[in-house]
Design a protein that fits this description.
By secondary structure, the protein is of the alpha/beta class. It has helices spanning about 30-45, 50-60, 70-80, 95-105, 125-140, 140-160, 165-175, 190-195, 195-205, 215-220, 240-245, 250-260; strands at about 85-90, 105-110, 180, 185, 210, 230-235. The protein is globular, with a radius of gyration of 18 Å. It binds phenylalanine and fe (iii) ion.
């Protein structure tokens, strides 16, 4: 989605593996205040809306309102829990690089933080979306395995030329997924838990449809990148999400999907 920070080769500051130092000491007081503002808004809306795994991860990684987290300190906790690490990258990295990182339990994150004028919307993921949104779920053992499996599946899809279909799985789970919890629904997608307005809309608004997760249907469904989603997919548990995707051989599925029309989230 990002336009300004999309690279095809590592920019000068980046190492060969695409990482850059976070330079935590360089964040300004205003940067830290932006984090705190965003954090406090989410802390008001997420209890009762975000799934327990997310809320527990937030707690375990100590991503409280102290300002932009220092990746190094956060990684000590995250690595001890699930073997994942968050690294800073200069912007969106090429698909292949992204998948290879996930396959190694490395999550690439933007290090810049949005400006006060962009509190509600920005085009490319910043450190708040990437760290507040994604890192807590990486502290959950089953979701941690799902993310790694997704990276391995991504490398395979890349070689099979089926990235567009697989990208929808990421979108409708990792970014915008809902999970059934008792009678109700809870948020686990990073795009939801990191958004003040969509974290409310996804659960409360009458407009979007909320349907049970179905792998083939997910991979056929287009998505919006510049507006609230029109459809959310609900998983029953992270265990079934992991086992369904692991146990399915996607190669024949990709071939079948080539012959099927895309679905619109509005339909
Ligand atoms: N099982 C998938 C394949 O055959 C890989 C995968 C696992 C993809 C988990 C996404 C999530 O390609
Ligand atoms: Fe994201």
């Amino acid at each position: 989605m990002g336009l300004d920070h999309v690279f095809t080769e590592p920019p000068p500051e980046a190492a060969a593996d695409w990482t850059v130092p976070q330079r935590w000491a360089d964040y300004s007081a205003a940067d830290h205040r932006t984090w705190v503002t965003l954090y406090e808004r989410q802390a008001r809306v997420l209890p009762g809306r975000a799934c327990d795994a997310f809320l527990r991860g937030l707690e375990a990684l100590d991503l409280h309102g102290g300002g932009v987290p220092d990746f190094e300190r956060m990684n000590e906790k995250l690595f001890a829990l699930t073997g994942w690490r968050v690294v800073a990258v200069p912007g969106l990295v090429p698909d292949e690089v992204f998948f290879a990182m996930l396959a190694k339990r490395i999550f690439p994150a933007g290090r810049f933080i949005r400006t006060p004028a962009q509190l509600d919307y920005l085009q490319e993921p910043d450190v708040f979306h990437d760290v507040f949104g994604h890192a807590p779920m990486l502290a959950h053992p089953v979701f941690a395995d799902y993310m790694q499996a997704y990276g391995e599946g991504g490398l395979r899809a890349f070689s099979l030329g089926s990235l567009d279909h697989l990208a929808r799985l990421y979108w409708y789970t990792v970014e915008f997924g809902l999970i059934r919890a008792g009678q109700g629904l809870k948020l686990y997608g990073a795009g939801l838990v990191s958004s003040f307005s969509e974290s409310i809309y996804a659960l409360d608004d009458r407009q979007p449809s909320r349907v049970a997760f179905d792998l083939k249907r997910v991979m056929r469904t287009r998505y919006k990148i510049d507006d609230f989603q029109r459809r959310y997919f609900i998983i029953d548990s992270f265990e079934t999400l992991l086992s369904t995707t692991l146990e399915t051989d996607f190669a024949p599925l990709y071939r079948e999907l080539e012959t099927l029309p895309d679905l619109n989230p509005e339909d």
